[in-house]
Amino acid sequence: MSDTGRGDLLLEVRNLQVHFYLFEGVVQAVNDVSFDVHRGRTLGIIGESGSGKSVSAQSVMGIVPSPPAKQLAGEIRLHRATPDGGIETVDLGRLDPRGQEYRDVRGGEIGMIFQEPMTSFSPLHTVGDQIGEAILLHIPDSTPQSARERTVDLLRRVGIPRPDRAVDAYPHELSGGMRQRAMIAMALSCDPALLIADEPTTALDVTIEAQILELIQELQDDLNMAIIYISHDLAVVGGVADEVMVMYLGLVMEHADAETIFDEPLHPYTRALWQSIPKIDGPLEQLVPISGNIPNPFAVHKGCPFYARCTERIQGVCDESPPPVLEPRQGHTVRCFLYADDVDLASNGAAGD
Amino acid sequence: MADVMQTTSGANGAAAGELLQVEGLSKYFPITKGFLRRVIGFTKAVHDVSFTLANGETLGVVGESGCGKTTLGRTILQLYDMTAGSVRINLDEGQLDVGSLTPEERKLFRRRAQMIFQDPFASLNPRMNILETVGEPLLVNGVAKGTELEQRVARIIEQVGLRVEHLRRYPHSFSGGQRQRIGIARALVVNPRLVIADEPVSALDVSIQAQILNLLQELQGEFHLTYMFVSHDMSVIRYICDRIAVMYAGRLVELGPKDELLERPRHPYTALLLAAVPRTAKGSRGKRLVTAGEPPDPANLPTGCVFQERCVHVQDICREEDPPQVSMSDRHFAACHFAKDLNLDGITVAPVTLSA
Questions:
Q1: Chain B positions in Cβ-Cβ contact with residue A276 (cut-off 8 Å)
Q2: What pLDDT does B97 receive?
Q3: What is the pLDDT, as a whole number, of residue B244?
Q4: Is pLDDT above 60 for A210?
Q5: Residue A103 pLDDT > 70, yes or no?
Q6: CA A297 and chain centroid, separation
Q7: Strands ordered across the beta sheet of B332-335
Q8: CA A209 – CA A231 distance, rounded (Å)
Q9: Testing the interface with A: which of B207, B211, B272 to mutate, by most A Cβ within 10 A?
Q10: What pLDDT does residue B320 have?
Q11: How far apart are the first and last CA of chain B?
């Protein structure tokens, strides 16, 4: 696959901008978000509430409610495999979210796991019926019998005991961990090339969370699936992601491989976030909270949206104009004025080589 | 916090600084069936739990959902009637037997033992402004009214980091972190001695959690509070607590000083719980151990040890006999037949650098 040049590149999101037009004002939920997702790799998105992490992912899925939301700019290019073995590129942003073509992608090429498995399943239908419905819709020539067999197979695959009985269970009859497994089975029912997991373990206990994450990684290895893993939990993301994107108020503040984000974070927000969370191991240090609150979502920021809470802000610079996206090291981008000089040095050095 | 611990460590009995004594506390919920609500069984949410709380310390109660940690807190506060056992609290006004309070004693107990709830969005009445919300306990308990009430509310509001101008505002105009500060103010305004905080930071954003944890620490020193801190988050428990109690299926399976319990757990369940938390330190980041299984149904517990189905060290005796409470020291015990024999892995804790 890698011989086709961009063969393992699955999804390109470029300059995505999604605003919500509400009665109270405009929420700039996603402002200028760009990222790539490669087959077999995991992109972690870290962010607090209002960071735009979920809206970014939902835009890829085409499930952002519109209105009130509107995609103002950006491209979402999916490089999908064609039946004859080639690769074709579709710009999802241009498809009608309610149209047949998007319906084929959603649940077909892209599967999604949501945070709360109790509210994402219908309480009125059995787990088997709901997974079977996805199979009947997306897999050609499937019959109710074949869909049921495939569902039982999937439930077994995700580690649900006695899958032939669980298939007829209603969601409330399963425990939280088992419901989340069933959710994963549904997301995987049509062999997606991309799995979007939006806080899939937040409602679960740590022991169950560990089981679910291991399952997701096993399935990724087997199916060479790409994963977008969204979470507010830095430690969890550190365990699953190959590269990490840190978001704040609709902007990508920092983007690098996972090791770098945790060991050598550059953005003051990433560093502050890291100092403000309690850790299970290592020396016990006094937590340094990030001062202030997450700004009102309706506020429009002339400069950096983190300005008011930043300990390294430069008055007259950071509050005056939006910070640039810089690449102080190769593959490590940061949206911050602090590195404006570093980047010049780095590019000069690179030119001299 | 550490100073308080030293002055009270090894304390025995009320005179030497014990605030709370819990003995054999149980809370069973009946399972009913049919129109007549016939009782067909019991969910043993809390079973035979004993521990003491020293003045000024913070006890963390940790466990998975359904382990009974919330029920334990609520039963201690008499929000649920206890099924068996006793709870005694030693106040300046004298010792109270929480299980059999006279109406007069109940009023005193309600002021001296308070609770901070998890969800700051659900625990505040949207139709009451901050003055009314925080002032209500003073009014209800007949502690203060009128201008005195307003002054006391204003003072506590500033102590939790809000501004007096906020007094006439309603909950919707506050963020999650600010609402949790309001919840804390409401708990502290009546000068409690014991505060049970049930997952007080779980619903908050990461950047706000540290603010509230540090605030709780500061207030503990200022108000001489004793905390029982209920959480599922081992990292939060590690940060804020002096001692840790681990619950599983309604039982207290291990209780001990923080570092001792974290570095060298004595109960296999404590070890399992610790192993499941993703590591953050360089070199071991994201590493965690995956173990199969889920907690048993508290309405249908196995004979013997409640942890037998998930335990990798299980022996025949564990399936037959309830494990005894094995003491490692006078402050550390584990409910396991093999607590002294097993060599369980904990976490790597470097020297404590926390300045209290």
A1: 206-207, 209-210
A2: 94
A3: 96
A4: yes
A5: yes
A6: 20
A7: B113-116, B194-198, B226-231, B58-62, B243-248, B251-257, B332-335, B325-329
A8: 13
A9: B207
A10: 92
A11: 6
Based on the number of CB atoms within 10 Å of its own CB, is B18 exposed (0-12), middle (13-18) or buried (19 or more)? buried
Q: Is the peptide bond before A67 cis (omega within 30 degrees of 0)?
A: yes
Q: In what order do the strands lie in the sheet with B18-33?
A: B38-54, B18-33, B84-91, B94-97
H or E element that contains B299: none
Looking at the complex, does the CB of residue A48 fall below 8 Å from at least one CB of chain B? yes
- pLDDT for A1 equals 40
Residue A52 in tokens: 């735009």
Q: Where are the beta strands (DSSP E) in chain B?
A: 18-33, 38-54, 58-62, 84-91, 94-97, 113-116, 194-198, 226-231, 243-248, 251-257, 325-329, 332-335
Q: List strand residue ranges (DSSP E) for chain A, in order.
A: 9-22, 25-38, 42-46, 69-81, 87-91, 110-113, 194-198, 226-231, 243-248, 251-257, 325-329, 332-335
Look at B279 and A281 and tell me if their CB atoms are within 8 Å: yes
Using N-to-C axis directions, what is the helix angle for B206-223 and B176-188, rounded to 10°? 20
Judge contact between A310 and A304, C-beta under 8 A: yes
The reported pLDDT for the residue numbered A348 is: 39
Contacts of A208 in chain B (CB under 8 A): 64, 294
* pLDDT tens-place string over residues A104-126: 888 788 988 887 766 788 889 99
Is residue A281 within 8 angstroms of chain B, CB to CB? yes
Residues B32, B207: contact at Cβ < 8 Å? no
What residue spans of A122-257 are helical by DSSP H?
A: 127-138, 144-157, 163-166, 176-187, 206-223, 234-240
Residue among B232, B236, B350 minimizing CB distance to A282: B350
Q: Tokens 């080589």 correspond to what residue?
A: A353
Q: Which residues of chain B have pLDDT under 50?
A: 1-15, 351-356
Q: Is A6 helix (H, G, I), strand (E, B) or coil?
A: coil
Q: Which residue has the tokens 């550490």?
A: B2
Integer CA distances (angstroms), B177 to A50, A53, B131, B157, B162, in order = 14, 20, 18, 14, 11
Nearest residue on chain A to B179, judged by CA atoms?
A: A293
Distance CA A13, CA A34 (A): 5
Minimal C-alpha gap between B102 and chain A (Å): 40
Indicate the residue of A272, A279, A285 with minimum beta-carbon distance to B354: A285
pLDDT at site A345:
39
Burial of B228 (0-12, 13-18, 19+ CB in 10 A): buried
Q: Across the strands, what pairs with A25?
A: A22
Q: What is the DSSP letter of A68?
A: T
CB contact under 8 A, B65 and A176: yes
Bridge partner list, B23: B86
A199: which 2 tokens?
């806080």
Angstroms from A302 CA to nearest CA on chain B: 23
Task: Please report, for residues A8, A122, A127, A174, A205, the alpha-carbon distance to residue A171 in angstroms, rounded to integers and kept in the order given.
Answer: 36, 8, 6, 6, 18
Alpha-carbon span B231 to B60, nearest angstrom: 7
Residue A88 confidence (pLDDT): 84
Give A309 to chain B, closest Cα distance, Å: 10
A302 pLDDT tier (thresholds 50, 70, 90): confident
A59 phi, psi to nearest 5 deg: -65, -40
Position with higher pLDDT, A80 vs B307: B307
